[in-house]
Amino acid sequence: MIELEGVPELIDPVMICAFEGWNDAGDAASTAVGHLDREWKGEVFAALDAEDYYDFQVNRPTVALESGVRKITWPTTRLSVVRADTGEKTRDLVLVRGIEPSMRWRSFCNEILGYAHELGVEMVVVLGALLGDTPHTRPVPVSGVTSDPDLARSLDLEETRYEGPTGIVGILQEACTHAGVPAVSLWAAVPHYVSQPPNPKATLALLNRLEDLIGVRIPLGELTEDARAWQLGVDQLAAEDSEVAEYVQSLEEARDTAELPEASGEAIAREFERYLRRRDGQPGPGGHATESGGVADGREGPGTGSYLRDSAGGHTRPRKPSPKDDVAREESEGPDGDESAAESSDGPTTGTGTGTDGNESTDADTGDGDTGGGEDRTGSDG
Q1: b vs e for 10-35, b when ≥16 Cβ sit within 10 Å of the residue's Cβ?
Q2: Are strands 90-99 and 14-20 parallel, antiparallel or unpaired?
Q3: CA distances, 254 to each of 169, 232, 251, 259, 364 (Å)
Q4: pLDDT along the chain (382 residues), means of 10
Q5: If we measure between CA atoms, which residue out of 205, 164, 168, 231 comes closest to residue 374?
């Protein structure tokens, strides 16, 4: 049973998730959620039972001394809530951060969705990072994907077409789709030749894209300077090895050739709009997610009627089922009574730079740059 003692009524809540491991190249995604938690001083209100989901021989607990007392910290997934108040707009974020579970993935996702339901979450955003053939000297590509065609149109996202092995990110997004909760995955492409964490440049790119998606300005703190220092450091390392420098140059040429038409138009316009919003302290053009899964511009996404808004206070709570739901379900099933299955929304996977993990790729970047035994896979990630 889920208990939410001490959790206040939330305003336009969005759940942001990231998991260390296969879906987190350079720790970019988990670091992004950690940044949100740190900047807005998140308060942990729940933790999943580590005994249910983790193999402790794979993810071992740690022991430390605190004031002379030994304390064991178990690997788990924790949920915290932060209030993003920028003066112009206020909304609550439910942050889910942990390690990709070793077992019982369906129960794991059901438990997270249980919290999302109880808190009236309007949309779930899962962050991930993959290894790709992208140069560290260029902006980090970030792909936004969903398995819901209506949500893809309303939020200007890609509709995933990926087929193949997946991680917990793909499983969680699929679980959200079946539960009727709008869900989006944001994937940052990390250069495979510098896969070691941290990668503040990829973390920064994820946060910038997340800012546009949820319509809340995110304080970046020292992250911008860290990203600049990271790139300078990699520049120096590449300059010391002629083969690496030549390889980076080939990636730059391929990237610039592929993006030449866009670089002169929409990409420049988007970056300029982001600069103006940050200067003026305004949210992104996407508006905020509504209870229907769309944005606050009159367009609707999937899940219409899944949540109801308290118009007086701007809060949301899950809507109670009504007899009309049964009628609508019977009409949608047709004469055979079969419902159409939702399309699989599998996400990309990441390597660790040692060649032990596979890696999927997006339409913009191929994730076949794994230097070891990783599998080469292409397609849109979900």
Answers
A1: bbbbbbbbbbbbbbbbbbbbbbbbbb
A2: parallel
A3: 29, 21, 5, 9, 11
A4: 72 96 95 96 92 94 93 94 83 96 96 95 96 91 91 88 90 94 95 93 96 92 95 92 88 80 54 56 41 33 32 38 45 44 40 40 40 38 49
A5: 164
For the whole prediction, is pTM greater than 0.85?
Answer: no
Number of Cβ within a 10 Å radius of residue 378: 15
Which tokens in the block code for residue 219?
A: 């304080």
Structural tokens at position 75: 């690997």
Q: Whose CA is closest to 142, among 261, 265, 32, 254?
A: 32
Here the tokens at position 19 are 């998991």
Both tokens assigned to 20:
């260390």
CB neighbourhood size of 143 (10 A) = 24
- Dig out the tokens for 363 from the structure: 């339409």
- Answer for the pair 234, 136: CB distance below 8 angstroms, yes or no: yes
3-state secondary structure the chain: CCCCCCCCCCECCEEEEEEECCCEHHHHHHHHHHHHHHHCCCEEEEECCHHHHCCCCCCCCEEEEECCEEEEECCCEEEEEEEEECCCCEEEEEEEEEECCCCCHHHHHHHHHHHHHHHCCCEEEEEEEEEECCCCCCCCCEEEEECCHHHHHHCCCEECCCCCCCCHHHHHHHHHHHHCCCEEEEEEEEEHHHCCCCCHHHHHHHHHHHHHHHCCCCCCCCHHHHHHHHHHHHHHHHHCCHHHHHHHHHHHHHHHHHHHHHHCCHHHHHHHHHHHHHHHCCCCCCCCECCCCCECCCCCCCCCCCEEEECCCCEEEECCCCHHHHHHHHHHHCCCCCCCCCCCCCCCCCCCCCCCCCECCCCCCCCCCCCCCCCECCCCCC
